[in-house]
Design brief:
α1 packs across α11 (314-334), α3 packs parallel to α4 and α12 (374-384) runs antiparallel to α13 (414-425). 35% of the residues lie in helices and 25% in strands. The chain has 13 helices and 17 strands. α4 (105-121) links the parallel β5 (100-102) and β6 (126-127). Strands 7, 8, 9, 10, 11, 12, 13, 14, 15, 16 and 17 form an eleven-stranded mixed sheet that branches. A six-stranded parallel sheet has the order 3-2-1-4-5-6, with helices on both faces. By secondary structure, it is α/β, with parallel strands linked by helices. It folds into three domains: 2-139 and 314-334, Rossmann fold, CATH 3.40.50; 140-310 and 348-352, Dihydrodipicolinate Reductase, domain 2; 358-439, ACT domain (Alpha-Beta Plaits). The structure holds NADP nicotinamide-adenine-dinucleotide phosphate. NADP nicotinamide-adenine-dinucleotide phosphate binds next to α1.
Length: 443
Amino acid sequence: MQQVNLGMIGGGTVGGGVFKALRHNGALLASRIGVRLELRKIAVKAFDEPRSVPIPEALLTTDWRTVVLDPQVQLVAELAGGTTVAREIILTALRAGKPVVTANKALLSAHGEELFAAASAAGTNLYYEASVAGGIPIIKALREGFVGNRIERLYGIVNGTCNYILTRMKREGAEFADMLAEAQRLGYAEAEPSLDIDGHDSLHKIGILASLAHGFWVSPRHIHVEGIRGLSQWDIQFAAQLGYTIKLLGVVKRLDGLARPAARGSGPLVQVAVYPALIPNTHVLASVNDAFNAVFVRGDVVGDTLFYGRGAGQDPTASAVLSDLADAALDLKHGTPSRVPPFVPHERAGAALPIAQAVSRYYVRLSVVDRPGVLAQIAAILGRAKIGISSVFQPEGHEGESVPLILMIHDAPNAAMAKALGQMGRLRVVKAPPVMLRVEQLE
Ligand SMILES: NC(=O)c1ccc[n+]([C@@H]2O[C@H](COP(=O)([O-])OP(=O)(O)OC[C@H]3O[C@@H](n4cnc5c(N)ncnc54)[C@H](OP(=O)(O)O)[C@@H]3O)[C@@H](O)[C@H]2O)c1
């Protein structure tokens, strides 16, 4: 049987998982693809680092270059993380003509175009299934499974930490800070949690999915991001009373028929954003709980599809890396390094819609003084902005002198809504900054 020699950079959570999975399932994988993967060396930062999966010292080195540039190594897995050394590792391997497998969404988000160009220039390939939604094969689905579709909608719950916190807030009626502390205690959240809870990890992933789906590389600068830090138990409860669940959602919407900003491509206009949104309890995404991820994709030929699974962790991520290693090994076996290129720009480049122009429905929570005439002042502001109210709800509850007032708002442009909220916030009868969340009906 043919053999492909693998060099790995990183023997931590993901690298350790790949090492373990190759031990357990390497023979099975070889029997399926007709190629045996031989792990020759693993580069780490320090020999004496405690590892969840012990790796024999004979396999380890602290010099990644000796792995990447070893003439015996034909295939490189970058599982170190970060955006500086990892970029150098990948570029060095690609320039040496070696295919690379990576799990590094932060790096792809920042330098994806440069890395894909380097792979193409060197006539080799870059695989990145593990960079989005862990064990869920969503990259393969978009690159291959849906190759004959225009992607009309993509919604992703792609950050397990946030989904875990939101699930527990809903189930237990607990506040955000308490559930974050619990997630940190259980190892679901980092000690420095901002990458997850402020939405940036989701942004990296949703940017990659949007780019693949629409054939133009979506810069992180064009992705609007809001995290879950500001969510209160009140909003979780009031949303539930109205039949909704709040999820941190990555949103990719193809918008046909909208006027495009001048000089911005001729392909589709696409809204790409990450924000906490109210979604109907009846939609399947509302049942994606705990640390699970899910990606909903609507193609113009296939219709609605849903991918569900563990979005992070040692074994699910290793599963995605193994899939990429198998593809790269098959490319080497058949001499077809670019059979499925990492990213192909579509002929008609699209453009990302600025959030100010995006249109959505909204949930607005106001803290108002409990007296007649208040609603009329608020309705007047919305009326002047030509924003329609679809329903008004005054739940039980007091916050000092004020009471909550919930407005559900019809489709309105973000910019108009933001301006109206600013005006509401300045009313003397409104006692706290208004809270605004988007409502996604997912229809
Ligand atoms: N953890 C997950 O669930 C998950 C899921 C999807 C994607 N990812 C991505 O996978 C990548 C790796 O994450 P991880 O969780 O496995 O990280 P990790 O546990 O911190 O492991 C990183 C590994 O890289 C090694 N390393 C770091 N810098 C190095 C250098 N300059 N030279 C050689 N080795 C170096 C470290 O060595 P030492 O062992 O000596 O410290 C360690 O073995 C990241 O890009 C991450 O975003 C992770």
